[in-house]
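User: Thanks for the earlier help. One more: Aspartyl/glutamyl-tRNA(Asn/Gln) amidotransferase subunit B. Can you show the sequence and predicted structure together?

Assistant: Of course, both are below.
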Amino acid sequence: MTVTELVSYEDALASYDPVMGLEVHVELGTRTKMFCGCSTSLGADPNTQTCPVCLGLPGSLPVVNATAVESAVRIGLALNCEIAQWCRFARKNYFYPDMPKNFQISQYDEPIAFDGYLDVQLEDGEVFRVGIERAHMEEDTGKSTHIGGATGRIHGAVHSLLDYNRAGIPLIEIVTKPITGAGERAPEVAKAYVAELRELIRALGVSEARMEMGQMRCDVNLSLRPHGTETFGTRSETKNVNSLRSVERATRFEIQRHAAVLGSGGTIVQETRHFHEDDGSTTSGRVKEEAEDYRYFPEPDLVPVAPAREWVEGLRAGLPELPRLRRNRLREEWGISEHEMQSVLNAGAIDLITATIDAGAPADQARKWWMGELARRANEQGTELSALPITPDRVARVCELVADGSLNDKLARQVIEGVLAGEGGPDEVVDKRGLKVVSDTGALSAAVDEAIAANGAIAEKIRGGKVAAAGALVGAVMKATRGQADAARVRELILEKLGVQG
Ligand SMILES: [Zn+2]
């Protein structure tokens, strides 16, 4: 099906209500794998972080990673879930080369956490509650690289390479309840949910949740039902969508595609689909397996997980402030609008600004430098703000030097340039580049005299009482001193020398 056969988004919504289900996989940032002691660090040579357990060699026995269980419980608590008193792992049986055991250890009907919710704030400030069905623990698979095909997919490839370094990395899969009632805002709700979940995961410190690195990936289930009906339609499942924008686009596309199929009297096939970043479309993957195809059974090599209640309550008491509440608190403390806060979030600047304020900078100054000069430089270099080689402490020091009059904005920008260039901290850059504001009368006097001499006509106007004309002479002095003169002091000197009152 091509894009031209889609019905318009408005027409789709005029006839149908979308129902979504979002399944998000998060790779936990534990030091070792889910069931063995192999390292999880990224970037190692292929197949160097493996052992008999994660390679599924006969006779090897898995042992549960305690930190992963703790992370799963904390995620469950932060999502307002019930925590299981007792639960087991299950074997999910299927054959695929990236899974050397031919089964994945997962959880089936006994998830560690279930029946919760996450409140999601939409761009206009409205809060939408997304129900959480379950959060369960499982292990990641290895990574296949298909060589020779045009698209990197297995079709057309001449051979495939397998790297088992990722096999056995702990995953948490978080599954929503069916999301209804979002209407035309369904794509926005889907995006906002994944964004909020990512913030939550980061606030818990259990994963960096970088979608572009596959540490967090979303499967988008979507179906339509005619307005006024209760029964859900057949759903499609778009797999491994790996950016917030793609989650929104995939949802939107599937709404239009489903409406087109249903509207022309066709039926939706229950299948998995691939999302294409280039044109925002999805294409058919494989016909979806039913749960019974996996022949789940309790994992016999692992003991059940039975978290002690006191331990769970201790973890609950230690949860951090939830991101949405923190954002609202900071927005009020900083005195900015929803829209301005949204810009801060989009720029990934909230923690940087907070740390700069903690280091002593006033809120408006901290926000001004990160969202202005530093955002501009990050943008120029095509990098994230957090990747710039400058710390919040150093930005706070720049703010302090501006506040005490040692630097003006122009000089401060040069200091930042120096810090980013690796010339040291702000004070070092000021010293090395000689960037202090000059307000000393002796040092400024000659430059002022020169400016007056070179601009006789303007000087006459000022003598005659047109004080506003002094701006031109201040500009001349600033230029002559390469922006280092204290502009207010220069103005005073000009008026003094020309014998007029400011
Ligand atoms: Zn291993």
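User: Great, one quick takeaway?

Assistant: The longest strand covers residues 127-139.
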